[in-house]
Amino acid sequence: MIPHIQHTEIILYVKDQQKSTQFYEQLFRKSADLNVPGMSEFVLNDFCKLGLMPNDGIAKIITPALPHPNLGNGIPRCELYFIVENLQEEYDHVKSRNTTIISEIETRNWGDTAFYFSDLDGHVVAFAEKTK
What we know:
Blueprint: E1 8-14, H1 17-28, E2 34-36, E3 39-45, E4 48-54, H2 55-62, E5 79-83, H3 87-96, E6 101-107, E7 112-118, E8 124-130
Parallel strand pairs: 1-4, 5-8
Antiparallel strand pairs: 2-3, 3-4, 6-7, 7-8
C-alpha cells in the first residue's frame, strides 16, 4: 500500500467532451462539478473524481510517444466499476437512456451482482451490488 495517496482521479479520454459530460450528468443525475474547455469532472465521493478530457487535449501531452487517442475510439479501453445501493434502480435508469447494455444483471462468480454497459466512447461501465 502507498500511504501517501490521498485521492484518486480517473480521467477518461473522450471524443466529444460536451456529449460525454451530458452522458455522465444523466447517468449520475448531477451536473459536472467542473466543466471547462479541456476538462469536466464529477466528484464521486470524498476520495474519488471522474474526469473527462478530450482526445485532442491529451494528445498534446502524449503524442508522438503514444498513439493519438482518436485511434482507439469505440474500442473498450477501461472499465469503471461502481458499487451502488440499488442495482435495479440503476439498471432501469441506464435502460431508460437507450444505453448499450453489454451484459444483463447477474450474479458473478466473484460474488457481486452486476450489469455492464458502455459509454459514448466505448468505455465499459459496470454497476454492482455486493451479494450478501
